Amino acid sequence: MHSKKIGLALAAAAALVLAGCTATEEPGTGSGGGADVAAAEAGLAPFLEPSAFPVTEPLETLPTGARIAVLDCGSPICGLFGDLAVAPAEALGMTVTRIESGTTADGVASAFDTVIEGEFDGVFVPALAPSLWERELDELNEAGIPVVTSGISGLDPDKVVASMATSLSSTTSGALMADWAVTQEADATNAVFYTTPELSFSAAVNEGFIAELEKLCPDCTVRTVEIPVAQFGGGGAQIVVDDLLANPDTNVAAFAVGEQAIGLPSALRAVDLEIKTILNSPDPSVLQGIKDEEFTSAIGVDLAVLTWTMIDSLARGIVGQEVGDAVHNDEIVRQLLTADVLPEDVSRGWSGYPDFAERFQALWADAQ
Fold first, then answer.
1. What global pTM score does this model have?
2. Domain 8-49+168-301 maps to which CATH number in 1.10.101.10, 3.40.50.2300, 3.90.230.10, 3.90.105.10?
3. Which of 3-7, 159-163, 206-210, 226-230 has the lowest mean pLDDT?
4. Is 164 in contact with 150 (CB distance < 8 Å)?
């Protein structure tokens, strides 16, 4: 969407923002001056194509017969992780059990009880706040059961075999989103960043966005608004609409994760509102929205490669082989996505490497 139209009556009514939606404004704190659009373009340039494939080291030993658990936090992306994990696990001779956890303390505790009682050989945990399973992680460590994670910040790296989409890559994604915003609106950028407190990586994306925007455009403005995870899929869209109506000068909306914006296009149309959007790690429904020009752009995260990398890392943890430097350094595959670069079918997400399965299988071919 490329312009913003708000009726005066709707703007006047916009003072009523949903209860529970909190916003903080972060004006630029630099030395003044115009936006450095050239620097923003330079920051984006390496991501106009997919970034490097993260696994290059052959697997030495197959984890044949291993049983692994994949936790499902209940979001569309967690569901996609669970779906995508089956094929690489089977190719490596492992079996997968999917365990629903949700994101509440009780749900997570119950899920980990199932994991620990099940005596699995390895565990893949996406997107769950570390505070909800610190004790269980220690128990898994004591039992010698390897753990890999995705989308989790704040974990002790010594307690997991691999952890990707952490604060390292999340901060970079936030900076890339700010680069994109500046290429769109230059020193007129007036942005909102939507974060979700239950998703630990969300804060890192937010921090990266704010820091980069302040560096590139000290006089630009950004505020932060919370969308609770319980509002994904419906209520989140209303939070966004109410916020934008209350702040009619906003010209860029940035989302820490694409799932925050599910249902947003129809909600915006209902109030005759358009705004440029940049979303991090879009799920298939949001990718389709980009193709349909209902969203403007996204920092695509290759969820297929990420999932296969996590299963590959878990296999290495089970057989006692170290993961490679790129995995240790949280080098996930990303690309700036717009309608013109997306493939026809995005129902299973975006991949910068459509031959990813063959790449991994070549790395596993000589394992015994």
1. 0.85
2. 3.40.50.2300
3. 3-7
4. yes
